[in-house]
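Q: Can I see a sequence and its folded structure?
A: Here is a first one.
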Amino acid sequence: MKLEPEILRHLWPHAPQHKIDVICGLSEELFEEHGIDDVSVVVQLMANISHENGAGTIVRESGNYSGPRIIQIFGVGKSSARVTEEEAPGLAHNAQALFNRVYGLPGSPKLAKELGNTQPGDGYKFRGGGDLQLTGRDAYTRIGHMTGHPEIVDDPDLLADPAISFRVAVAEFATI
């Protein structure tokens, strides 16, 4: 089973052509490696990827959120981060502060522990990245080793490489 560039271009009209070409070139090998041989599973995988990566346009979680949007996503009753109305303006449009607060220590000890974020700055460093928006030190470590790309722990921005990003996404999906 293999993804075809014209189909992916139709699904992702604003994605870089290079990304589409790389993903289509790797798809057959990766689907076989992970035992993905059912078209409905491929559809589910690509629907998840398309949602998480903005139809091929998002590489890392931006964090460029307004105060009201932060409350919608990370507010009290929405997330264990429990960002308050008073905090949100100070986090708005400040990705590093936002992700260190909601995914890291000391801001969100419960979620930080679940994600394996143990060091100062881990919340921002291990924010959503790649085609399925891999999040947290533990996930980067586990999937990085599984895919032969342990270097993503030291440099999460390597998920900008479409080959690494798609390999990581397929492996992550296959482990669910």
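Q: Show me another, different protein.
A: A second, unrelated one:
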Amino acid sequence: MIRESLLITTLVELTDKLVDDYDVIEVLTVLSHRCVEAVDVDAAGVMLASPAGELQFIASSSESMKLLELFQIHANEGPCVDCVRSGLVITNEALSEIDGRWPTFAPRAIAQGFQAVHCLPMRLRGRTIGALNLFRTHQGSLTDNDVVVARGLADVATIAILQHQSTIDASTSNTQLSSAINSRIIIEQAVGMIRQATSWNKDFAFD
């Protein structure tokens, strides 16, 4: 019941933020902390892929997690990199047993105290736009309930990003529309002034 109450509180908190003028990084930082509280993991972070395919660090539950995420980007290697590229879930990966899969990342993560990793792709209509990364200081599998909760939180993160992007797109569209209308008004005024000063017709004055 404790986790159920935490999830309800988290969803209410995030919903309140999403219906207001919100900072997407702040929302995803809150979500990262809630992942640690609601799922059997010790650190969480969110990374996004730019339109050009480059990974970008967005939010994390701790400074050590942030440094590890940035290291993945710099090394171009690690679970998040694989998750975003493949669009596939990475679950219950023991960092000491990956047989050279991440030769520079795994030792770095272990040195920071992490033993297992889980990554969930954040998808939009079949396209992977980022990943929710979960790390544990001990090995062992996530329970089915933990996976369901993590998946739900990853979906919330996706919604937050899409809502933020839609707001930006709408703002840009409105700005462009206003600019086009204002430009058209100026052009019409100029055409009128030219016609008034000459005997040209509207089309010739417009040209």
